[in-house]
Specification:
Elements: E1 4-7, E2 10-13, E3 18-24, E4 33-39, E5 46-52, E6 57-59, E7 67-72, E8 77-82, E9 91-101, E10 104-109, E11 113-118
Parallel strand pairs: 2-11
Antiparallel strand pairs: 1-3, 3-8, 4-5, 4-9, 5-6, 7-8, 9-10, 9-11
């Protein structure tokens, strides 16, 4: 198992930046894939960005060129740098860790952190 703790959310004006952090309770070397998801009121939880243990990244089209996912092995932490924020980026952001064993994937989630972008 792995516990995830997010931080770094808040209120920012459109065009501003925020950096989210996700601290894992175990070495992120052992986690196959980590990602950030977001959920706006009344909407489904959607993938924002992910990074595999091999360093392959994936981004939602809506954030490409604005958001960057990265990791710090020494701190067992994954980051989401968010630049040029827009009001439509407003959501609760969740950190995810995916542990894959054969055909099975177990997902672990943080508690979420609110990001609000004002126009």
């Amino acid at each position: 198992q792995v516990q995830l703790v997010e931080s770094g959310g808040g209120l920012v004006q459109a065009g501003g930046s925020l950096r989210l952090s996700c601290a894992a309770s175990r070495s992120i070397f052992s986690i196959n894939i980590m990602g950030w998801y977001r959920q706006a009121p009344g909407k489904e939880r959607d993938l924002v960005a992910s990074i595999t243990s091999g360093g392959i990244t994936n981004y939602a089209d809506s954030v490409k060129g604005r958001f960057t996912i990265s990791r710090d092995y020494a701190k067992n932490t994954v980051y989401l740098q968010m630049n040029s924020l827009k009001p439509e980026d407003t959501a609760v952001y969740y950190c995810n860790a995916g542990m894959i064993r054969g055909p099975t994937r177990n997902d672990y989630w943080g508690q979420g952190t609110q990001v609000t972008v004002s126009s």
